[in-house]
């Protein structure tokens, strides 16, 4: 199991489009994924779960992955966060 703290740096936070991109990236891997923010932990492969976090710009989240491809999944997810979910601004 690995975990990493990530910063939401896109202006709109984890809104529907950003959440869908995150879920799509993580769903390509077999590892279990959870996202923790503001005292809540949700299934990071669930759009509804991630949306419930209501994580805005500047929020720190912890992504936890557990499985055979956890390192690859973490690299892909972290890259998405670093690219600000491919959004302008």
Task: Detail the topology: elements first, then pairings.
Elements: E1 2-7, H1 16-27, E2 32-37, E3 40-43, H2 47-52, E4 60-66, H3 70-82
Antiparallel strand pairs: 1-4, 2-3, 2-4
Helix pairs in contact: 1-3
Protein name: HPr family phosphocarrier protein
Organism: Luteimonas composti
Family: Belongs to the HPr family.
Description:
- The chain is an alpha+beta fold and 89 residues long.
- It has one domain (2-86): Histidine-containing Protein, Chain: A.
- Helices cover 35% and strands 26% of the residues.
- It is built from three helices and four strands.
- The protein has helices spanning 16-27, 47-52, 70-82; strands spanning 2-7, 32-37, 40-43, 60-66.
- The protein has a four-stranded antiparallel sheet.
- α1 runs antiparallel to α3 (70-82).
- The radius of gyration is 11 Å and the shape is globular.
Average pLDDT for all residues: 96
Number of helices: 3
Give the strand order, joined by hyphens, for the main sheet: 1-4-2-3
* Helix content bin: 25-40%
Large-scale geometry: globular
- Helices and strands: which structural class? alpha+beta
Entry keywords:
globular, cytoplasm, 89 residues, Histidine-containing Protein, Chain: A, HPr family phosphocarrier protein, alpha+beta, single chain, 3 helices, HPr-like_sf, HPr
